[in-house]
Design brief:
Elements (H helix, E strand, L loop, with lengths): L31 H10 L5 H10 L3 H5 L5 H4 L5 H21 L1 E5 L3 E5 L1 H7 L2 H4 L21 H22 L7 H13 L9 H11 L7 H15 L3 H6 L4 H13 L36 H14 L7 H6 L1 E6 L2 E7 L3 H19 L4 H10 L5 E2 L5 E2 L8 H5 L5 H6 L7 H11 L5 E6 L12 H7 L17 E9 L13 E2 L7 E2 L16 E9 L4 H17 L24 H11 L12
Parallel strand pairs: 4-9
Antiparallel strand pairs: 1-2, 3-4, 5-6, 7-11, 8-11, 9-10
Helix pairs in contact: 8-9, 8-14, 9-13, 10-17, 11-13, 14-16, 17-20
Length: 602
């Protein structure tokens, strides 16, 4: 057999072998107390029976492996209790043996998935995620970025279970139930069901361009797709069979994915329906709106770094060991041990590096393809109604069919209306991509708003001194404005993180940036980057476009373009601030080791 690919340095080493299969899932590994809890939930928790089990120290393996005829002989079970206990044990054996499933994940190792999650995975709506790239068009630049939303979602479901179980074991007083655990796992598993083709390129760029008046985000579609998945596959009764209370737990799962169901409820002291305020911390596991520290990021940091070949210095397994729940202002929050503040800064720095080096890489062609194909590419939804790419999100049956496959469908189509989009795809196949002219930033604290007039301003910035022979137009340029931050806009995300100390683990405290003695912390936590591209491949036009771009930077008080290909020595002296002092400052700002960041107002 061929040798397995070695794990990249910096990727978390997932547990291997039997240790990865949680002993909480196997009833034969249950202790006496866990066994008694299960019998009580099954309705056979008579005090006398539970007392006899505890006195005899009966464990899961002892009871499950005991022959049926021996139940009464051991005096653990009375004749009147025998049939009900047997039925409960048989049901438990059947559930565990028949449908528990082990996945061999390249990041987390061998992980065991609850049977209800397996039923959700084995549906067309979830299998759709196999055909949506996790990093969208980044795959056209990074050959290793071939992973999909499917495996990421399974990883998040697994980590959600790990975190909630760790809290349950560490703090039994939190009264975390098996229902809570299962709902958190399902929310983690289904949090990305609503992603469209090429992931964030669809909801972050394509939809705002084609439907600017639509206030839509992929979390909204995830909630709708989850409802569609459950109803179309008739999983309601299956959920009940595993102990879920349908209305309450469905609300809880949807709220973890998309926030409060009723937007007006946000004004109330407790806006959620699925769980009461006493369990507020459960809403911070899958999608943490307080500070961005959640299992979704833990998985995609590890998974994306692994596939991109970028080192990941953040260790989520260590953080699992140092999390607990503390109460602050009558509300419970997940807190981290104070000494782990450096690990959290590593987490947010990893996020920033991934955005800078991979996530924000410009593949504008893909968006242009979808725009040109939008009116002519039809998808059949419920009742035979046809939808465009931009309207398919209105019908979950149509949206289920909308994946990255549109790339190949357009490429191999013979439809005359798709000719323009098809030609762009052929250029991508030939690697005739837009030419990167360079990137710049505002030198002052101001925000540049992306609009159609920006390209016109570059086209009007023809150098007066030694002008190029080529006349360029606005349509020759592509401008991409990227807002880079640490997850909380211009705020330091650690300001919103609660910590606890060894001396008093029950008390939550905050740690200011000044208390973290390190020269490697960023000066500011947000910046704006302007990247400019030329659509034309002709070397003469590209050379002229670079001169236009540099002149535009001078006129608008932007920093010197950060790209080694931008060579215009005859223009450089015109901008005195681009001499050594400013050059050194900007170079320092672009190096991760210094991490000086230029903030911008939002």
């Amino acid at each position: 057999a061929p040798a397995k690919r070695p794990r990249r340095e910096g990727s978390p080493e997932g547990p291997r072998g039997p240790t990865a299969v949680s002993d909480r899932c196997d009833p034969r590994l249950w202790d006496t107390e866990r066994l008694c809890q299960h019998l009580s939930r099954c309705g056979v928790g008579e005090p006398g029976l539970l007392r006899r089990l505890r006195e005899s120290g009966v464990t899961g393996s002892m009871l499950l492996d005991l022959p049926a005829c021996a139940l009464e002989v051991t005096r653990v079970c009375l004749p009147a209790e025998r049939l009900r206990v047997l039925a409960c044990l048989n049901n438990l054996r059947q559930q565990h043996v028949d449908v528990m499933k082990v996945f061999n994940d390249p990041i987390h190792g061998h992980i065991e998935i609850h049977p209800l999650l397996v039923r959700i995975i084995d549906t067309p709506q979830f299998q759709r995620l196999r055909y949506i790239k996790q990093l969208g068009g980044t795959y056209f630049v990074f050959p290793g970025a071939s992973h999909n939303r499917f495996e990421h979602s399974i990883g998040v479901g697994y980590l959600a279970g790990c975190l909630v179980r760790a809290l349950k074991e560490r703090q039994p007083e939190l009264d975390i139930t098996q229902r809570d655990i299962l709902c958190v796992e399902i929310a983690g598993l289904c949090h990305d069901l609503g992603h469209g083709p090429f992931s964030h390129m669809f909801d972050g760029r394509f939809i705002p361009l084609t439907r600017p008046d639509l206030k839509w985000k992929h979390e909204t579609a995830s909630v709708e797709m989850f409802e569609h998945l459950i109803t179309s596959n008739k999983l309601e009764e299956v959920m009940k069979a595993y102990g879920l209370v349908l209305e309450e737990d469905m609300n809880f799962i949807k709220e973890q994915i998309g926030g409060p169901i009723d937007e007006t409820a946000c004004e109330k002291s407790w806006p959620y329906r699925g769980r009461q305020k006493e369990k507020s911390f459960l809403y911070e596991i899958v999608a943490n709106k307080k500070n961005g520290i959640d299992v979704d990021k833990w998985d995609y940091f590890a998974r994306d770094c692994h596939h991109l070949g970028i080192q990941n210095n953040f260790d989520y397994k260590r953080l699992l060991k140092f999390t607990r729940v503390c109460e602050v202002k009558n509300q419970k929050h997940i807190c981290t041990r104070d000494k782990e503040v450096g690990n959290l800064y590593d987490m947010f720095h990893t996020r920033n590096c991934l955005h800078r080096r991979a996530y924000q890489h410009k593949i504008g062609n893909i968006i242009e393809i979808m725009q040109k194909a939008d009116k002519f590419f039809k998808i059949e939804g419920s009742g035979g109604k046809l939808y465009q790419i931009s309207t398919a999100l209105e019908d979950m049956e149509a949206y289920t069919k909308l994946t990255d496959n549109i790339y190949l469908e357009i490429l191999h189509s013979s439809c005359p209306e798709l000719e323009e989009a098809r030609e762009i795809l052929h250029k991508i196949e030939r690697r005739e991509l837009y030419k990167f002219l360079g990137e710049t930033q505002p030198e002052t604290m101001r925000e540049i708003v992306k609009n159609n007039s920006l390209a016109k301003t570059i086209a009007n910035s023809k150098p007066e001194k030694d002008p190029p022979d080529v006349e360029l137009k606005a349509e020759d340029f592509i401008i991409d404005i990227i807002n880079m931050d640490y997850g909380m806009k211009e705020q330091n995300p650690i300001d919103n993180v609660l910590f606890y100390c060894k001396a008093d683990p029950s008390k939550a405290v905050k740690i200011s940036k000044e208390q973290v003695v390190s020269k490697l912390l960023p000066m500011t936590f947000a910046e704006q980057i302007i990247r400019v591209y030329c659509k034309n491949q002709d070397p003469n036009i590209v050379s002229a476009a670079k001169q236009y771009f540099i002149q535009w930077c001078i006129e608008n008080d932007f920093t010197k373009p950060q790209d080694s290909d931008v060579v215009a020595p005859h223009l450089t002296p015109m901008k005195k601030s681009w001499n050594n002092r400013r050059d050194d400052e900007h170079r320092a700002a672009s190096e991760p080791s210094c991490r000086q960041r230029l903030p911008f107002d939002k």
